[in-house]
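We close this part of the discussion by returning to an individual protein. The amino acid sequence and the backbone structure tokens for this protein are reproduced below:
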Amino acid sequence: MLLGETFAVAISSIRSNALRSMLTMLGIIIGVGAVITMVALGSGAQKAVEERIAALGANVFTVFAGQGRSGAIRITDQTVLSTDDYEALQRDATLLKAVVPEMQQALQVVYGNQNRNLQIIGTTANYTDVHNYTMPYGRMFTAGDDASRQRYAVLGSAVPEMLGGNPAAMIHQNILIRGIPFEILGVLSAKGAAGGFQNPDEQILIPLETAQYRVFGSKRLRSMSIQVKDSVPIEQGMVDLEHVLRREHHIRPGGENDFTVRNQQDILQTQQQATQVFTTLLASIAAVSLVVGGIGIMNIMLVSVTERTREIGVRKALGATRWNILLQFMIEALTLCILGGAVGIVVGVATTMVLARVMQWNTLISPAAVFVAFGFSAMVGLFFGIWPARRAARLDPITALRYE
């Protein structure tokens, strides 16, 4: 029997049992779709972390106020970072390119008839440069605005929507922060929250001097963002900062720091590695359904061999070889898996697009994942089709013809 004729007989057998064939393919469809969707979700999460790492800016780390001590007693509410530390770093640190102090407090913000409690950040004019921001609307306040304690505000990208305003139309309008009028100078580009960090798109920047003397009434800093000089390893910048701050805080050699230095890029890269492991785990779990689908195909093919025993006997009596019978059943199993894999690709891509649009999840369809899932489905059909095909090929034609 020619290969084309064998293929035609196999396809005819599948079409004659269309409903059973569709139900048989369901396991493969679900498995391929699940693998593509899970990998897309994991790849989207990794991409979001990569974008967040890039958004942090080059060679940037952060120092936070730590817990102070009084003798052997830890004082949990003592803030040890202040504008004096900022000035000392500006003056004495030799490896640091930029120091961005950040005062922070959640305050009431009023715009029109909208009233929100938002994070207010008192900082300097180089905040946008260090944190790699652009200004799609308006401008950032200047060092001169800071020195003259101007009441200027720069909004995070999500704040206009939260306050019910249009970003472009809000420029040069006033908002009330703690009852004090501030002129809106600009709106920052979007960053997005990742890795459990506070969402920077939902904060408002005001000049440091204005925050210190007109709003917060304090010299205390929540943190400082530090950018090291070009070609200087970030670890050396950390050592330089630690040397200055320990001297300013009068910490003796061997004493514990009362501040915390954190390289957020390392944290995000660790999260990225965890996301990769999680993606692999999800894809592996989804791949189990492919194996289950393959077992279902094997069971159906065994049933098909039993149902068509007399047909196999007739074909062997008319001259069909073992290879012809083996090939026919292998083609049937392989066709079921390939068709199921093709439909599964459509289902996986469609599900990914729905999750991205409706649930607003980060997704990224991986061509490699699509290829591997489809190839694996074909291998499943080939593997689980071998036993039923061999069983059909080994039937004795006399016994098969007598089968009722």
